[in-house]
Amino acid sequence: MSILITPTELAAALARPDRPVLLDVRWTLAEPDGRPAYRERHLPGAVYADLDHELAAPPSAAAGRHPLPDLAVLQAAARGWGIDDGAGVVVYDHVGNLAAARAWWLLRYAGLADVRILDGGLGGWLAAELPTESGEGRPEPGSVTLEYGSLPTTDLDDVMEYADRDRLIDVRAAERYRGETEPIDPRAGHIPGARNAPTFENLGPDQRFLDPAALRARYAGLGLPDGAEVAVYCGSGVTAAHAAAALTVAGYRPVLYPGSWSQWSNHPDRPVETGDTPRRGSRRRA
Fold first, then answer.
1. Which of 46, 163, 191, 234 is catalytic?
2. 159-285 — its CATH code?
């Protein structure tokens, strides 16, 4: 089953008795609270998922800006969204699913098998002239039981193993990767050995994912063999989930580093690299 669903496919699924649970995950750094926009207009039956408070734990220098939430917090949120065991879930946002992919990855990591991303997000739904509604969704509470560990992750101590094998991707903007600017985190640059592949380049002008062949060609251009296990990180672990989705569509096996740069850069003992060309063997020399 594809991890993506088109607006037309979703509209048909919403007409069935076993319709999927819809999560609206609108969030950006500039406007982290997407609830007002959600209340103004959202897909029929969609429930708002709060990225900062339900899809992440409180930030800290030790763990990063968007650590994974405690399992109990996520399970309570998922039940509040109306999710039962075995239910299908579809997630979306309004900016190319850069935030919604966090919900997709996290729910898959927590054991849900049927979680998909609305390709094109809210914009794609509106372009298809499909209906919306306003107000606040109040579903019947669900009974889902979650358990972490269904997808692979790496951490502060092990992520360099992927860099040493040329299997680490930094998905932030190129100027942040090169260390020319760092507007958020304490140090500029990237994890030594990481290659840069900005997340937004996985999308076309319509904010839909590129087709699988185009995504495979993009990652093959970084020297990644077809189907390889690839670790990904971003600033705080949010858009890295979007890259994990793109890698999945392309046939790779993504491994998420949830702490990402916001964790790494807060640990002065961890080496930092700047510039365009990754050096090899940086962990052994550090």
1. 234
2. 3.40.250.10
